[in-house]
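FIELD: query
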Amino acid sequence: MLSLPERYSTASDNELAGQISSLKNKLGSELLLLTHHYQRAEIVAFGDHVGDSYGLSRLASRAANSRYIVFCGVRFMAEAARTLCRDNQQVYLPNMSAGCPMADMAPLDQVMVAWGRIESICGKNQVIPLSYMNSSSELKAFTGENGGLICTSSNAEQAYKWAFARSEKIFFFPDQHLGRNTANKMKIPEIVLYNSDEPDGGLSDDQIRQARVILWNGYCYVHTKFQKEHIDQWRARTPDVRIVVHPECNEAVVANSDAVGSTAFIVDYVKKAPTDATIAIGTELNLVHRLAMQYPDKHIFELSGDSCPLCSNMFRTSLADLCYTLDYLDTIEQITVPSGTKNNAKIALERMLDIGG
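FIELD: result
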């Protein structure tokens, strides 16, 4: 992990904010600064665009006039931007240690072992791979090479429909909860979980043959902190509460909520809620706090109350990181994706953009 020069690491937030504003003004239209909804409020304040992984990926793909794309998020997001943008553009992640544990739960070698077994049972070209955006570039490339596409929580249902128009089965990775909740929404009961920690995934040949959706056993450690008892507690003390959650939550939480959707959906849901509404939100803490500040006329709370659902990787990016990045764009490490990986990953990502969000 890069150790920042002292003049950045010891500067006050006000000093850093002033320097960032000056650097942004100097760079002008050459710079596109993308910030994910889960970033700290002080980082979001500098974003040219704030959004979820789908919306920001689409913006990166269209940023023809920007020489520098700085993505305040985590590595898989910056890699997706690098894959979709033009070769003459430069992509940066201000804190290079910001990863995604869920993406790491589906190593390519393990997925390929599972894929080989599934194909040996079901036959070639009988299963479509769908990869959640929260995955490595190598896994995205595998997906594109094998006829599949990438999805986000914004367009998972469209991705399922696309896949089922081409095959009877889906292999979905890495997030089991988004995969299951999407199948449940579409009333698809034939779901099995491939447990990568067990021999043969813990599944018999017949279970794989009979399944329409085969899920990988990954998950988001933030969203799985929310439990049904949190909803029950809210409804017991505040009967008119509105519960809105992210589809990375477990199926019991999703089934008992009033609304379910991506981070962009949650932002819009809060925006449209009436004045004085009480809303308990099951998603990352930075977004919940920012929505509470943005809409003081509404009563906005984090759903679990005491679990502190903070994404530590999203939280890594600081004003010092961003300031240093903007100061040394032509000399610091860029985000790169090998050409072979990039070509197949781009196929899968462009299919995602084609089906919309």
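FIELD: remark
The chain has a mean pLDDT of 95.
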